[in-house]
């Protein structure tokens, strides 16, 4: 069984999400990107769009407006200027 990705989504007001997940897709300024466990380290700026979190069959989406993503040995941290969960109707 593959490992999990330690992911944290933080806005200026609070930590919006924190947990172990299978994959995170995010809107980078140079294009969308996905991060899996043991991903190579990198840092990038984010554009407005949706961050999608996948954990097994569960999928959660968060709207973000700008910020930065940092992937390192500890996992993925997104520091967003604004972040809010998108609730499906």
Textual characterization of the structure:
The chain is built from no helices and ten strands. The chain has strands at residues 5-10, 15-21, 23-28, 31-35, 42-46, 49-55, 58-64, 67-72, 75-80, 83-86. It is globular.
List the helices and strands and how they pair.
Elements: E1 5-10, E2 15-21, E3 23-28, E4 31-35, E5 42-46, E6 49-55, E7 58-64, E8 67-72, E9 75-80, E10 83-86
Parallel strand pairs: 1-9
Antiparallel strand pairs: 1-2, 3-4, 3-6, 5-8, 6-7, 7-10, 8-9
Structural class: mainly beta
Beta content comes to over 45%
Mean pLDDT: 95
Sketch the major β-sheet: 5 strands, mixed
Strand order of the largest sheet: 2-1-9-8-5
Quick structural summary:
By secondary structure, the protein is an all-beta fold. It has strands at 5-10, 15-21, 23-28, 31-35, 42-46, 49-55, 58-64, 67-72, 75-80, 83-86.
List keywords for this structure.
89 residues, five-stranded mixed beta sheet, globular, mainly beta
